[in-house]
Design goal:
single chain; alpha+beta; Glutaredoxin; two-stranded antiparallel ribbon
């Protein structure tokens, strides 16, 4: 009887420790976030488990707007290989995304044939920064690095386990060799 109770105690202790570790790990992953897509539906990052993710803040009237074309090429090339791009329109820099969600969706489809998921327009800097961008830019939330969103089309890479890996500035092409090689790994 003592052996049974002792075994039960150690099993309970092991299970509790394991569960606590998984919860701690989840605190630093993107999987804890659900956002609204450009059509007003929920987009749960938890459903992307096992995929590499690029998150990019976008704008329709920016010098970097032609990167939509490169983003779409990258998405088409790797979307069947556990890779996804998630775009977040933002009007934070130079008022270069003045449109409504509907106008943004139409612009992206008509001018660049965008098929990767686009989210509702959000704020990516300042005191009203969206929680997903707090995760991307604050080491206390992502356990990797502190960054600052400096302009439209800044890119963040998330690995298959939901962890932030790296950030790329706006002037880095989505088709940059380092990004493509990371996706291929």
């Amino acid at each position: 009887m003592k052996t049974f109770i002792l075994s039960l105690f150690f099993l309970l202790l092991f299970t509790t420790t394991l569960f606590s570790q998984n919860e701690d790990e989840k605190d630093y992953t993107i999987y804890q976030y659900t956002v609204e897509d450009i059509y007003g539906d929920d987009f749960d990052f938890n459903e992307l488990f096992g995929k590499k993710v690029m998150i990019v803040n976008t704008a329709s009237k920016c010098g970097y707007t032609p990167q939509y074309e490169e983003l779409e090429k990258l998405y088409q090339r790797f979307k069947d290989k556990n890779f996804i791009i998630v775009g977040f329109p933002s009007n934070d820099f130079g008022k270069q995304e003045p449109g409504t969600n509907e106008e943004i969706a139409q612009f992206c489809k008509k001018n660049y044939g965008v098929t990767f998921p686009m989210m509702s327009k959000i704020t990516v800097v300042g005191k009203n920064k969206h929680s997903i961008y707090r995760f991307l830019t604050e080491k206390s939330k992502n356990n990797v690095l502190d960054t600052k969103v400096r302009w439209n089309f800044q890119k963040y890479l998330i690995d298959e386990r939901g962890y932030l890996i790296k950030e790329f500035s706006s002037n880095v092409s989505p088709l940059d060799k380092e990004i493509v090689e990371w996706i291929k790994k």
